[in-house]
Structure prediction request, 353 residues.
Amino acid sequence: MSLFDLATRAVRVLPAETAHRFTIDALKTGLAKPEFGLEDPRLAVRLKRSGLLLPNPIGLAAGFDKNAEVAAQMLGFGFGFVECGTVTPRPQAGNPRPRLFRLSEDRAVINRMGFNNDGIGYFVRRLSAIPRALGVVGANVGANKDSEDRIADYVAGVKAVWPHSSYVTINVSSPNTPGLRGLQDRGALDELLGRVGGAAREMAAVVKNRPVFLKVAPDLDDRAIADIADVALAQDWLSGLIVSNTTIERPESLASRHKAETGGLSGAPLMEKSTRVLADFHALIGDRLDLIGAGGIASAQDVVAKLRAGAQAVQLYSALVFHGPMLVQRIKSDLLTIMLAEGIDTPRAFRPS
Ligand SMILES: Cc1cc2nc3c(=O)[nH]c(=O)nc-3n(C[C@H](O)[C@H](O)[C@H](O)COP(=O)(O)O)c2cc1C
Prediction:
């Protein structure tokens, strides 16, 4: 067993948040060195609306690298893109600990971190130091908990990260900032996207166009999905949706002792629901917006399920907690095997036509 494997196993016996901090520090110091391999060109995808070119469709979801500390290293593990954040304009401590729970029996995680981060100034300094050529690095922006004008926080965030990121995500779907998800309601979303759209146009005039994504929750009924699709489609500057964030629902099937903790549930029990919501959005939107699927992915089969539901690319986070970062290489090689078995030469071919 390599030192790296040993460290990956040791991390799993630490309390969840300590393990996460240890992992980030190990990556920063170079203790946990990714193995760089050649990317198979058959995995490359270009997102239709945004034009983003990804060496493979598997991304690291937001929340792992909140402060843009280890994006380069995570690209090195083989992710096709990495999303840093969520970052808020001012630094924020987040909720009291413990606030991160492993539900091992359920292959799930509950978190109520509450946008703990070092603030946009620090974030932008780190982000701007990442060489562009390394790969696609997105920036996920949010609002401070005590902000008087939350939309102004999004506008400030978008403007600050714009010159330094490959794309920007507007996160209105964290369950851990009270009231934040209310921004998904039709009227509030209209106002939010109106003001962020103004900032996007302003920035595009001076820097360069950046794809902007809106990240939504999985806890949406048909009416809410239709409203979000409608409002999103009306924005000519918006590239797509990321579906989805964590859920506040607790499926009956959960077995872990942590299942009643407050917060957002992610990992395996989120797979079915988030994929259903993704398919619902795809039914309304088709290819008019890029859809990125997230929620419960732990295998190449899961990736294929998201692509079949209409995703052009996917993201994962929770599965890393149980399988370690080498999971990405495994998923990519299994995906190629499935592609070969089905006689197709691009992940796009899984998508509904
Ligand atoms: C510990 C933790 C922290 C997260 N923090 C964020 C965040 O800051 N911003 C965000 O948009 N999503 C955040 N997420 C949600 C993930 O990006 C992802 O949408 C969700 O976990 C579903 O994917 P998964 O099942 O592969 O984890 C977080 C998830 C976890 C587990």
